[in-house]
Predict the structure.
Amino acid sequence: MDLISKKTRNEFREFLTEIVLREIDNFFDNHNVAFNELPADKVVKGERRYRVEGYYFAIDWTSKNDVQKILKVYQDILKYLQDNLQNWNGAKLKVWLEKLQIDLLEDNYKFENNKLTFIGDTTNFDNLQNATDLLDKTHFKEYTDRIQKSVLDDPSLAIGSTKELVEATLKTILTHLEIEIEKNDDVPKLLRKVQKGLEIVPDSIDDAVKGAEMIKILLSNLGSVVIKLTELRNLYGTGHGKEKKRNGLSERHARLAVGAGITLCTFLLETFEYKRTNNS
C-alpha cells in the first residue's frame, strides 16, 4: 500500500509547476532525492511536470525510507508556502497551503509548527490526555508532541521521551496518592510503588476471582514493559551519554517503545481516576 496517495503526489506536483525549475531542484536535492530521465511510456507534458516526475520515478511509495525523504521535501514546500503568505501572491499561496494540508491529512500526515508528522496513532495519545482531569495538560502535551514529531525523524529521541513520559506519569500518580518519592527511585521502583498504591500489585488479586491467574500475568507484564522500555532507552535512546542515533535503531523500534509506554501510562491513569472517583 502506498504511504502517500497518488492524489497527494499529483497535487504537490501541480503546485511545483508554478515555480522555477531551479527551486524544484533545490527542494528535492536538499534531501538527496535523485532525478531520473523518464522512459518513453512515462513522459508527461510540461517541463516542470517532467522534472517532478523524474524525481518521483525511483521512489518506492511503499517504502518508509523512500517516503520519509519525500515527506521532508513536502515539509519544506509547506514551510515555503507559509513563509511567503505576506507576499504579493500570498492569497494564492494560502489556497495551495490549505489544499495540500488537507490532502496530507487524508494520508494521515499533519503539518503543525513547521513540522510534518504521521498522525495515524493519535487515538492512543488522546486516551492518555483524557484519562484523568488531574494531569498538567500542558506539561504532558510537551512529551506527547515531542514523541509524535520524532518517531520518523529521530527514533532515539522518541524512545527517550517515552521513558521520560512514563517516569512523569508514575511520579504524578504517586504525588496525588501522597506516596513518598525517593531521590534514587528509578522507573521499576516507581512502578512498584504505583502498583501498590493503586492496589493493582499482582499478588493482591484473589485467586477466587474468575481468570485471576490471567490477570496476574497481564499485570506482571506491565512491569516488564516498563523495565524493558527503560533498557531499550539506555541502549538506543537519548540520554546517558549515548549518541543521538545508533545503527540498528529505526522507526519500528520507536513505535514499539511508544506503543508500550502510552498503553501503560493510559492504563495506570485510568485506574487512578477510577479509584479516585469511586472512593470519593
Observations:
- The radius of gyration is 24 Å.
- The domain at 122-278 is CATH 1.20.120 (Four Helix Bundle (Hemerythrin (Met), subunit A)).
- The chain is about 65% helix and 5% strand.
